[in-house]
Amino acid sequence: MMTTTELEEMVERKTGQHVVKMKGVSKIFPNGNVAVDNVDIDIADGEFISFVGPSGCGKSTIFKMISGLVENTTGEIEILGSQVQTAQQKRTDVGFVFQDATLLPWRSVLENVMLPLEFQRMSKVEKREEAERALKLVGLKDYAKSLPRQLSGGMKMRVSIARALVAKPKLLLMDEPFGALDEITRQSLQSELLRIWESQKMTVLFITHNVFEAVYLSTKVAVMTPSPGKIASTVNVSLPFPRDDEIRTTHQFSDIVARVSRDLKF
Amino acid sequence: MGNVQTEKLEVNNEMANRKKVNWKFLHSWVPPLIAFLIVMLAWQFGTAMLQIPPYILPKPTDVFMATVDNWSRLWDSASTTILESVIGFFFSVVIGVSGAIIMASSKILERSLYPYAILLQTIPIVAIAPIIVIWFGSGMNAIVIIAFTIGFFPMLSNTLIGLNATDRGMLDLLSLYQASKWQIMWKIRIPAALPYIIAGLKISCTLAIIGAIVGEYIAGIGGGDGGLGYAITVASTTMEIPYLFACGIAASILGIVFFLLVSLLSKVLLGSWHESEMKKD
Ligand SMILES: Nc1ncnc2c1ncn2[C@@H]1O[C@H](COP(=O)(O)OP(=O)(O)OP(=O)(O)O)[C@@H](O)[C@H]1O
Ligand SMILES: [Mg+2]
Fold first, then answer.
1. What angle do CA A134, A45, A249 make, to 5 degrees?
2. Quick check: CB of A234 below 6 Å from ligand 1?
3. Does the domain spanning A4-80+170-265 belong to CATH 3.40.50.150?
4. pLDDT tens, residue by residue, B215-255
5. How many domains does chain B have?
6. Same domain, B24 and B111
7. Residue B251 sits in which domain range?
């Protein structure tokens, strides 16, 4: 077991500058829906932060604002040191994984993973090499030539993750990526995601409905409450890395789960 | 021991598969063939028994003889019709698909042009065909334009629906990469619309033949050779009823062949990824 100081040191080492800064951010949709209300959050470099909360509390909306798909009504958002609009210009910095894999059914696995690189200046050979590297990272390099419909749900999700990783993002947004998977597949993808996160030195923002998943994966859990959507609390998860499956059965783990669940009820 | 057993099992399986394939083949071809034979026999002997004269309803053998006797005449007419409808079909595909792409790329264009496309569709082709003949002369040009007009709208509307039905998630994905409007069009919207475009092709290809025949009815022989539509009008005035039947059957065979060719194309283009063409097992 690690001591608290060791833990703090570790978190210190992993985290540094702020990657995402949100100040007084709200989103009011044209129809009057207040999806997100006055959210303040700073996310440090190297963090793995999960957003948990009931359906409709504005989790996806926050991600869409961060990625520039949706414009915020009020407040300021800074990504990787610049305002969202300019941050968007460096589009390789931010990767996005959606709830469903959104693979192009007419393209092979490799061509799907190459998609983000097609909007960059890069030689064909380089693109292929990068895509193969990303596929290897998610353990699918033998399936490069397969079509999406020949893959299982878990494998499709891996391809989707590989596609998000291929451009080496500094910030990875994942909106309920494992929501549609069975528990066993889900757990093995969780461990894999942690392994990738540790090796790639990036910041991950992760949406889930599942408190256990959030605690297992994260350095921090942001608990959100609905109507209007806001961040109720941020819980630090002071469990050591690398995390194995055993950690799910420890007291510390269940304590943190209990804490997050309690905050959710408010 | 175990190996031998599995081997045997595999062999059995293979045999079962082969049988199943044969059975499936019989299953889908035998019933319609039997129905066809029964209808033919009833027609043949019914007309003989009821003493229906051949100028009202010729026997199948009469039609067959007329086909054989007039083969070169029939073939000339059919190839004229094929040529006209292929050209008309080609233009309805090219103009329909590119029109849809243009409309899909701009909401304003879609809103201002689409109503007129619908209007064009609601005007019965026989009503505007004479005008087209007056404008373009009673030759191949007019007939091709009529074939085009009738096949154009299904291509346009199907493609447009397909282009507008692109998955929201894919569009979001591409806008994350800062893809331009045309990159989104080429990389996502057009390939995703392919099944709709193919559905349009299947409708338009048979319509093009109908258009060509209607055109020939109205335009007549014009400068060159007459097509099947013209042959039908001639045969009905000269009372060559068996030949009239032969022309009608030839026209519908053309339609079927056209349709099968487009279906084949669809299998080649979509077979690997789209549900509508996946093997059902
Ligand atoms: N385009 C839109 N127009 C109007 N209201 C919207 C729009 N998109 C989302 N909303 C509303 O904003 C609120 C937050 O939506 P959001 O999708 O961010 O929720 P969520 O937390 O991601 O939910 P879930 O867990 O179900 O995905 C909801 O009440 C929703 O109805
Ligand atoms: Mg959501």
1. 75
2. no
3. no
4. 888 877 654 578 888 888 888 888 888 899 999 999 999 99
5. 2
6. no
7. 60-277
Are B13 and B111 found together in one domain?
no
What are the domain boundaries of chain A?
4-80+170-265, 100-167
Hey, what are A119's tokens? Answer: 């909007």
Question: How far apart, in whole angstroms, are the C-alpha atoms of residue B250 and residue B228?
Answer: 8
The mean per-residue pLDDT over the stretch A83-111 comes to 80
Distances (CA, A) of B108 to A251, B3, B114, B186: 62, 69, 10, 20
How much distance in Å is there from the Cα of A264 to the middle of ligand 1? 18
> Is the ipTM above a cut-off of 0.85?
no
The set of residues, in sequence order, having a beta carbon less than 8 Å from that of A198 and lying 6+ positions away, is: A241, A242
Q: What is the pLDDT of residue A15?
A: 45
Q: How confident is the model at residue B13 (pLDDT cuts 50, 70, 90)?
A: low
**Residue B31 sits in the same domain as residue B65:** no
Report pTM.
0.80
Split at pLDDT 50, 70, 90, the class of A231 is confident
- CATH number for position B223: 1.10.3720.10
Ligand 1 binding pocket includes A33 (Cβ within 6 Å): yes
Kindly state whether residues B32 and B158 are assigned to the same domain: no
Contact A96 B176 (CB under 8 A): yes
pLDDT tens digits along A124-152: 999 999 899 999 888 888 998 889 988 98
**Distance from the B183 Cα atom to the nearest Cα atom in chain A, whole angstroms:** 9
Closest-CA residue, ligand 1 atom 30, reads: A56
Q: What is the C-alpha to C-alpha distance for residues B99 and B115, in angstroms, rounded to an integer?
A: 13
